[in-house]
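Researcher: We plan to redesign the surface later, but first we want a full-length starting point. Tokens attached.
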């Protein structure tokens, strides 16, 4: 796939955050967004959390529909709204992703604020029920043609959305904390290993590289996380080898320390 940058830029400017030019996405962000959407279309990631600007879920639907209409996508992706957050979802890949998670023990990183340091834990029955319910939700909505599908609070009201979002975005492990006790965490000034996966797309006469995944885990858990990261990387490499749109897949990591971490 070799596409002019103007197509991605003009489409984003037309449909996302209409109005003042000052509110338009920068050109580089337009290209990054297009790459992310194409990656969801190809099944390289189950979903994209849209947080580029204040564009509405309806505007995002118009943008994605336009990309599909001009042949830049092969799948009619769904727009899902959860507690005010908007996701672009490959429904078919999401179902297989969730079904695969059901077949093995789900792990999470427990960051409850009373812990001296984070620890890895197997998700309990509440998170297993959450996984079952969200899978049923996507199966029920498989053929729904609404512009935006809203996940009702009656379903997600008792869920830890931080954990849910990590699952939906395809991370190898999600953060968890007991939200019934506190919304705080123990990650302040804790060294975190930020892992990123990058892909490149030929756009016009230039190759544009974009971050496909970005997730972190506490450095103190590096040894315990190693196997999970290796498995996740291997699965991503396998999916990448089955497509011919992106030209390169690479990985990077860095350690950061932050005075405050909001999940």
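Model: Full-length starting sequence:
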């Amino acid at each position: 796939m070799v596409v002019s940058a103007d197509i991605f830029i003009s489409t984003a400017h037309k449909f996302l955050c209409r109005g003042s030019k000052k509110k338009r996405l920068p050109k580089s962000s337009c290209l990054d967004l297009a790459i992310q959407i194409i990656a969801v279309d190809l099944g390289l990631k189950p979903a994209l959390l849209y947080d580029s600007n204040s564009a509405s879920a309806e505007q995002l639907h118009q943008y994605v529909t336009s990309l599909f209409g001009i042949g830049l996508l092969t799948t009619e992706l769904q727009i899902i709204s959860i507690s005010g957050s908007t996701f672009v979802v490959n429904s078919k890949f999401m179902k297989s992703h969730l079904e695969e998670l059901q077949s093995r023990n789900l792990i999470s990183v427990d960051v409850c604020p009373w812990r001296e340091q984070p620890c890895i834990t197997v998700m309990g029955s509440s998170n297993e029920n959450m996984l079952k319910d969200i899978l049923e939700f996507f199966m029920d909505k498989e053929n729904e043609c609404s512009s935006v599908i809203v996940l009702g609070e009656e379903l997600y009201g008792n869920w830890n959305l931080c954990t849910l979002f990590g699952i939906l975005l395809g991370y190898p492990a999600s953060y968890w904390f007991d939200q019934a006790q506190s919304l705080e965490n123990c990650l302040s000034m804790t060294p975190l290993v930020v892992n990123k996966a990058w892909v490149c797309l030929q756009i016009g006469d230039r190759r544009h590289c974009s971050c496909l995944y970005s997730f972190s885990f506490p450095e103190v858990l590096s040894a315990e996380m190693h196997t999970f990261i290796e498995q996740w990387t291997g699965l991503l490499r396998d999916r990448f080898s089955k497509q011919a749109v992106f030209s390169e897949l690479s990985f990077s990591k860095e350690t950061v320390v932050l005075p405050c971490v909001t999940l």
